[in-house]
Structures are given as C-alpha cells and as structure tokens.
C-alpha cells in the first residue's frame, strides 16, 4: 500500500480514469456493432452520424487514437454505402 498522500491520490485518479475509459470503450464498441447490424440505409445513415461524432470526439480527447477513430468511421461509411 502507498504511504504518500500523492501516491494515494494517483491511485484514485488512475482508477477513475480506468473506469471512464472502459465505459467509453464499451459504449463505442456497442455503437459500432449496432450500426453494422443495420440493414436499412436511412436508419443506418442516421445512426452513423451519431456514432461518427462520438468517435471523433473520443479521438480528440485521446480516449482512442485519432487514427483508430478515422479508421472506424471510414469502415462504417463503406459499409453504409454497400447497403
């Protein structure tokens, strides 16, 4: 166990960040899966706009890398164009 006040604070901060990152990672995965399961183009396009905004925001905040956000958006756009 940590003995310094700053160490205890770091442990608390790390735990909080870990939980927040897990939440956003799971939310993002589910949102992407939901769009990939859609078969109606209009519905998928509306959902894509929301998911794309979410991915770009997470990329800006460095929760996921900007490249990963771009790659996911691109692959979703390709999928929707195939429908």
N-C termini distance: 55 Å
Q: Helical region count?
A: 3
Q: Tally the beta strands.
A: 0
Structural class: mainly alpha
Radius of gyration: 17 Å
Q: What is the 3D shape?
A: elongated
Q: What's the helical proportion of residues?
A: over 70%
Low-confidence stretches: none
Instruction: Give me the strand/helix succession.
Output: HHH
- The pLDDT mean sits at 96
Largest sheet: none
Query: What amount of the residues lies in strands?
Result: under 5%
Sequence-ordered SSE layout with sheet pairings:
Blueprint: H1 5-37, H2 41-60, H3 66-82
Describe this structure in words.
This protein has 83 residues and is mostly helical. Helices cover 84% and strands 0% of the residues. The chain has helices at residues 5-37, 41-60, 66-82. The relative contact order is 0.12.
Short note summarizing the structure:
The chain contains three helices and no strands.
């Amino acid at each position: 166990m940590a003995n310094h006040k700053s160490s205890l604070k770091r442990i608390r901060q790390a735990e909080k960040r870990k939980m927040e990152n897990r939440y956003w990672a799971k939310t993002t995965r589910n949102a992407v899966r939901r769009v990939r399961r859609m078969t109606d183009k209009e519905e998928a396009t509306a959902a894509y706009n929301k998911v794309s905004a979410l991915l770009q925001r997470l990329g800006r905040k460095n929760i996921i890398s900007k490249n990963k956000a771009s790659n996911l958006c691109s692959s979703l756009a390709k999928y929707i164009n195939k429908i």
